[in-house]
What we know:
By secondary structure, the protein is of the alpha+beta class. The protein has two domains: about 20-95, no CATH class; about 105-195, no CATH class. Helix content is about 25%, strand content about 15%. It is built from six helices and eight strands. The strands form two sheets. The protein has a five-stranded mixed sheet, covered by helices on one side. The chain is elongated and about 60 Å long. The model is unreliable at about 1-15, about 150-160 and about 195-205 (pLDDT under 50).
Amino acid sequence: MIQDSNKAVTIGQPPILASEQRRGLHIILFDKLFIRLPAFQTAICREHSTAVTAKSVASHVDLQHCFLAPGDRRRIVEEASALQDDGLLAADVDSIRFPNKIIPAIDGLPIWRDGKKCLQCGYIRRTRQHIQRHCRLEHGWVNPRGRGGKPGARLAGGLGEAWVDGVYCQRLGQTGALQRLFEVVLPASEKGEGQGESDGQGRGRL
Ligand SMILES: [Zn+2]
Ligand SMILES: [Zn+2]
């Protein structure tokens, strides 16, 4: 821990600038750390591949970017507040506009190609258990294999009656509501190479 002689800089200190002063604040440091996604009212940390909001940016930079000078971190928080004032950054997670249709893959986030999408409502999970549970609870789906069904009794195309497998998907972060998966299309440049084998987490596969 670096003990800064400047006692005024403590975690939890609100931004000092009044809202009218924040307007027109030049966004400099924020853009060095984050990729702005104004359409979704959020921004993605270039280093940690997670979305932030005006509210979460302070704890994100204090915890994950603690090597930055305290003044720089405070400046980033102020820039985030200015972006919020300009309607470019959500106040909190509840105000993020999650993608509700298929979008081009978002830069800076891992892409998975094993998404399982519910045919009835578009909900996506990456494991068979989770999507089965969703279809059962939300849509009254009945597993055609029945209880203890034999693995060999698989229907053609898997149990694909209720969902479709192999959907490219991303998520905005690793916690809470940010984990919600949404469908994406790969950039043309990535389609041929590697078949989208960019499982950034290397886990969760069944
Ligand atoms: Zn970060
Ligand atoms: Zn559904």
